[in-house]
Write a structure and sequence with these properties.
This protein is of the alpha+beta class. It has three helices and five strands. The protein has one domain. The N and C termini lie far apart (57 Å).
Length: 94
């Protein structure tokens, strides 16, 4: 089916995508230290929201829906690396 990536937290699946894939029962899971990653599982889709980066990803179809776990792992690793990096810019001390 497909993977649809939205680079802004204000972007969202189209009405057609919501009506087609995001219907029926759903199951919600939260990941990350502060619950910044939310996964919503539907029968025909998986919707992944990263509130830290503002990214939204809609995985549709059986094969693409299976990719969501790899993406969650990647996001968690990316968040952990950002937390480990020293801040490049810090306020000057007087």
């Amino acid at each position: 089916m497909g993977v649809f990536r939205y680079e802004s937290k204000y972007a969202a699946p189209t009405r057609e995508q919501r009506e087609r894939y995001m219907r029926g029962e759903r199951e919600e899971h939260v990941f990350g230290n502060d619950g910044e990653i939310t996964l919503i599982l539907y029968d025909e889709a998986a919707y992944l929201k990263d509130d830290l980066e503002g990214v939204r990803i809609l995985f549709t179809g059986v094969l693409d829906k299976q990719k969501v776990h790899d993406e969650i792992r990647r996001m968690l690793e990316e968040h952990a690396q950002k937390n480990e990096r020293p801040r490049e810019f810090s306020p000057a001390k007087r």
